[in-house]
Every structure is written in structure tokens, then in C-alpha cells.
Amino acid sequence: MVRTQIYLTEEEKDGLEAVAKSTDKKQSEIIREAVDRFLDLTKGNRRKAILDEAAGMWKNREDLPDFKAARRSWDRG
Predict the structure, then answer these.
(1) For an engineered disulfide with 12, which of 8, 23, 47, 54 has Cβ 3.0 to 4.6 Å away?
(2) Is the distance from CB of 57 to CB of 50 less than 8 angstroms?
(3) Mean model confidence pLDDT for the chain
(4) 66: left (phi over 0), alpha (psi -120 to 50) or beta
(5) Where do the domains of the chain lie?
(6) Distance of alpha carbon 34 from alpha carbon 30, whole angstroms
(7) In this structure, are residues 30 and 23 in contact, taking their beta carbons and an 8 Å threshold?
(8) Given this model, what pLDDT does residue 77 score?
(9) Which residue has the higher pLDDT, 60 or 4?
(10) How distant is the alpha carbon of residue 66 from its chain centre?
């Protein structure tokens, strides 16, 4: 694990303490669970952003073979 530091509002701190007390968990454990849930919820958005960024990255490359010609040679027609 990696240690990190965050700033919370008084309301967030009080709410976190209350949840920790009622669930008998450490505050750090609750924060990790919340971060994990957030990451799960946004996983699709992150994946889409990565794919969007990669789209067309070979578009203007001139050092690649002519794929259309290669495919024509592979066709059995």
C-alpha cells in the first residue's frame, strides 16, 4: 500500500468517523472501499477515454506496409 494524505471538510470528517464507529471499521478502510467503488463506477469512462485517445494513431504513418494489398494477396478468391 501507498500512504497518502487527503483534506476533508469537517462534515466529511464527522461523517467518516460516524460510519467507522457504526461499522467497527477503520477510517482508512472505509476510504479505500469508497475509492474502489468510485473506480469501478468510472472504469468504463476511463476505458473509453483511452480508446478515444488511441483512435487513429496510425492514420498518417508512412512506414507501415500496404495492408489492402497484403489482404488482397491473402484472399482465396
Answers:
(1) 8
(2) no
(3) 90
(4) beta
(5) 17-53
(6) 6
(7) yes
(8) 59
(9) 4
(10) 35
Pair 58, 64: CB distance under 8 Å: yes
pTM: 0.57
**Separation between Cα atoms, residue 31 and residue 1, nearest integer Å:** 13
Interatomic CA distance for residues 46 and 26, integer angstroms:
29
Round to whole Å and give the CA distance between 54 and 34.
30
Residue with cell 471538510: 9
Give the DSSP letter string of the chain.
---------HHHHHHHHHHHHHHT--HHHHHHHHHHHHHHHHHHHHHHHHHHHHTTTTTT-SSS--HHHHHHHH---
